[in-house]
Sequence to fold (113 residues):
Amino acid sequence: MRRHHLAEAGEAEVDLRHAAGVAGCSKAALGMAPVSNQKFSYILSAIALLILLVACINFVTLSVGRSLQRAKEVGIRKVVGAMQTQLITQFIGEAILVTLIAMIMGVGLSYLN
Fold:
């Protein structure tokens, strides 16, 4: 612990203490007030994972629904001579492209905040 006096700010006294591990501790490094409880970190992590799971299920559901609507296109492409690997590659490529666009938009929107 180091103490510094700030002459320009009057007779203020500043205490500098090492704050490593403050978030995981039950007592703060700068005092005895409770900072955080690990239970809350676990609860927030579980909520975040649940939101991600719901988003993945939603994406799969929308993709299947869209592919059922595109059954006519798939049939025509098969008649023309498209291989099964080409169709799979097209659908996976479209899914990855949509995911990347959504990720870029999400990162961009997060920087606006």
Summary: The mean pLDDT is 79. Residues 1 and 17 are 5 Å apart (CA to CA). Strands lie at 2-6, 12-16.
